Amino acid sequence: MPTHSLDEAMITELTETSGVPGYEDRVRTLVQDAFDESVDRVRTDAMGNVVGTIDGSGDHEVAVAAHMDEIGFMVSHIESDEDGSGFLELDPLGGWDPRVLKAQRVTVHTEDGDLPGVIGSPPPHTMDAEEREATPDVDDVYIDLGLPAEDVEDRVAVGDLVTMDQSTETVGELLTGKAMDDRICLYAMLQTAAAIEDPDATIHFCATVQEEVGLRGARALGVDVDPDLAIAMDVTVANDVPEFDEGEHVTRLGDGTAIKLKDGSVITSPKVHRRFKSIAEDEEIDYQLEVLPAGGTDTAGFQHTHGAKPVGALSIPNRYMHTVTEAVHRDDVAATVDLLTAFLEREDGTVDYTL
Predict the structure, then answer these.
(1) Is 322 annotated as a binding residue?
(2) Residue 13 annotated as catalytic
(3) How many domains does the chain have?
(4) Domain that holds residue 184
(5) Which of 230, 246, 182, 227 is nearest to 209 (CA)?
(6) Mean pLDDT score of the chain, rounded to an integer?
(7) Average pLDDT in the 276-302 region?
(8) Pairing with 200, which of 38, 84, 161, 315 sits 20 to 30 Å away (CA)?
(9) Nearest-angstrom CA–CA distance, 119 and 104
(10) CATH number assigned to the domain comprising residue 131
């Protein structure tokens, strides 16, 4: 059984707080507040990455990264219809599946405050057969604020941000809501930082920005932070539902933290993932191995032309990724905190990860 006890109030606050790529301000404040209680020093950079550092007793340095941003939208155009109502057209920030967007509630973040809205969806009995069978497209999405066009134009500007409006709920053994990607790993990282005391290694806990639009924050941070070892944390696909064959599951909820072997952006260092596996077995922490066919993570941000770094990654299995009902298993979250903590407490620079 996992030893970490989940702080569900903190998970709820992190997941329900809004922060799209490039505009992670509200989440960044939560991270900074948490770091103030657990690390020796905190700094931010020009992109908005936050680094909380715990100083170690030796020269060995480790970076741990989890991203703060969630997928969302930016207002690209304000449209008026013939009745004088105002609607918002959108540009996506991150990879949306348009099938899940219709009839969702949203929040539009304006300079003067937040406005509630809905993504419109015509009733099916008013559509012809061709319209009902058409493949949805993100470009077809629009927001109805329930306001006259002149009010919309007064209160909303091109460039305002939009996030999904969804609460975080407990469903059986699962926690479900929006932005589990990647706030649940951000939670695990912050909880690990709070648990670490007097490490041998200096540990840089990095809350990164703009992961959902191309790992941009981590790539910049990977130049600025120069660790001997880098560990990324992100959710991963759990297709353990009826419409998928077992070989397509990638991971399964409840089977433990996922030790990444590869994804679309990185092949993790063999000596790193083998050490994760060894420690998990020694500590009797449930784990599974992750081979993700596509998709990238911040792990790749620390492998670049400025220098080769050994890298590893821990992932939390996540059903229904990039929807408003992303779902993770509470035991997988706890196992991730347990394994990351155990791993970092053993890092003293004596393990050679080079090949």
Answers:
(1) yes
(2) no
(3) 2
(4) 8-70+178-346
(5) 182
(6) 92
(7) 93
(8) 315
(9) 5
(10) 2.40.30.40
Q: How far is CA 222 from CA 99, 117, 304, 312, 346, in A?
A: 35, 38, 8, 14, 23
Residue 212 is labelled as binding a ligand: yes
Contact 120, 179 (CB under 8 A): no
0.85 cut: is pTM over it?
yes
Whether 171 maps to a domain, the answer reads: no
Q: Domain for residue 1, yes or no? A: no
Domain of 205: which CATH number? 3.40.630.10
Q: Indicate the residue among 130, 164, 198 that finishes a domain.
A: 164
306 labelled as ligand-binding?
no
Record the tokens describing residue 16, joined without a space: 């329900």
The per-residue pLDDT for range 41-95, each reduced to its tens digit, is 999 999 999 999 999 999 999 999 999 999 999 999 998 876 788 999 999 999 8
Amino acid in position 197: E
Residues 234 and 342 in one domain: yes
Domain boundary among 137, 164, 191: 164
- Annotated active-site residue in 70, 211, 326, 347: 211
Q: How far apart are CA 191 and CA 35, in angstroms?
A: 10
Rounded distance between C-alpha atoms, residue 311 and residue 300, angstroms: 8
